Each structure stands twice: as C-alpha cells, then as structure tokens.
Amino acid sequence: QQPVQSPQAVILREGEDAVINCSSSKALYSVHWYRQKHGEAPVFLMILLKGGEQKGHDKISASFNEKKQQSSLYLTASQLSYSGTYFCGTLHMDSNYQLIWGAGTKLIIKP
Amino acid sequence: NAGVTQTPKFQVLKTGQSMTLQCAQDMNHEYMSWYRQDPGMGLRLIHYSVGAGITDQGEVPNGYNVSRSTTEDFPLRLLSAAPSQTSVYFCASSTSSGANVLTFGAGSRLTVL
User: Fold this and answer.
1) Which of A41, A91, A98 sits opposite B107 (nearest CB)?
2) Of the residues A24, A76, A78, B14, which has the fewest C-beta atoms closer than 10 A?
3) pLDDT in tens, B88-103
C-alpha cells in the first residue's frame, strides 16, 4: 500500500517554513526521505527508524510518529536550493527490505 | 568517482522492439535495483538483485528481464516494448538491501511509439 504524501505541492517564499507529511496504512519500520530536483536523480536526505530520534540535516529535520504511522519532514527558513520533489519511502516488516514510495510532494521556493 | 552510471540517457523505440538499459556501479555495492518513475506515481520497483547471480521481482516486473553476472552491472531488458513502458527509468544501488541508503543513477528516458 503506497504511503500518502501531503500536500501534493506547495509554493513558498524564500525564508518560509514547510512541513511535508508521509502517512502509511501499515505499521512502519522506517521512513526514508529523498529529494529530486527537476531532471535529476533522487538524492538521499535521511532515514527515520522506529523508536529512533528525530533526525536533522542542516535546516531540514524530520520526525517519526509510530502511533500515527506517519513521518513529517520540516524545512526551516527555506532556501532556493530546497526546491524539488520530496519523496518518502516506507519500510514495513513484510516488505522484504524494499521501500514503498509515496507519489511525492513538489516544493517550489520563490525569491 | 562515478557512482551509478546509466546508459542511454534517452531512447525512442517502436512498439515491439527490444532494447537493454545499462547500469553500472563502481562502489562495490551488493544491492542493485531498477525503478520506473511515472508522473504522479512516485518510484515503482521493477526488479532487484542482492548479489551476483541473484535477482528477484519487484512491484511491476512484467515485460522486463534482468540478470546479474557481475557485482558491477545490472542491465534491464525490454523484450517487446509497449507504449505503456514509456517512462523514466532509474537504476539504484546500496551496500546490502533496498532498506539502506540508495544511490541513484541519472535516469534513462524511454519513449515507445
């Protein structure tokens, strides 16, 4: 079952904050976040493990809510370089060590 | 420091033609995989391999074949191309499984007429 990402798209001004959510209908073992710029390959951002701590990467951080089966990606004081499509990949106990990917959230940062 | 190299970058085929998308990595990764990416659908796993001589099907394997004769190479074969196979294809590798950090190739855009 594909995880649901929300919102589908968001437009921000440089310096504003954004939150991207990734929800699963199945129990999560871990959530993986990647960013893909237009015409390029997806690039790894971070992994959130069940029972693990909130992770951070520069001004991008993420949380994992085991009870809600949800992860949220926080982009603080967004920069133009944050533009792109953000994908979450979810890992479940029965998924044979393969991620199931969300449809993506397109983030546009305007100056 | 090449990482994951995919060729060709662009390809146009006619329905029924066959072709091979090449993928090579120089990181000594055991795990390699192929995804297709279609608008609004994210990444869907086609086939994957956890080591030389070992391959398995992913979510959307029909119409595609793979083999893994060396650790470095993982080609994807389209046996008889169909318009539904028009997509962007990504090869990815990691140290041991799809649950580790994935390094993606630059992608191959395939159009089937």
Assistant:
1) A41
2) B14
3) 999 999 998 888 899 9
